[in-house]
Specification:
90 residues; mainly alpha; 8% strand
């Protein structure tokens, strides 16, 4: 697969399966423990104090809402507990 960049130059040729595996390895995709560990690593390496998350649709609105609820119940509390609070974050 040959991709082009926004300025029209040819992009890198990537194996779609390998690229998908790479994206899943570096992003918080998986069970709550894996998501917390991945986010902790990113926070530690980058020094950021705020995280914005994009939640992919899971096929149904209900499934997407369930994923958002699980992030709030199972990921964010652990992440907050393991990360120093940013000034003004409460």
């Amino acid at each position: 697969m040959i991709l082009s960049t926004v300025d029209g130059r040819p992009g890198p040729s990537r194996d779609p399966g390998a690229y998908t595996e790479r994206l899943c390895a570096i992003h918080p995709v998986g069970d709550p423990g894996h998501c917390v560990a991945t986010l902790e690593t990113s926070l530690r390496r980058t020094g950021v104090s705020h995280v914005l998350m994009l939640v992919e649709a899971s096929g149904t609105p209900e499934g997407t809402y369930e994923n958002i609820e699980r992030i709030g119940a199972e990921v964010l509390p652990s992440l907050r507990a393991s990360s120093p609070a940013a000034p003004g974050s409460g």
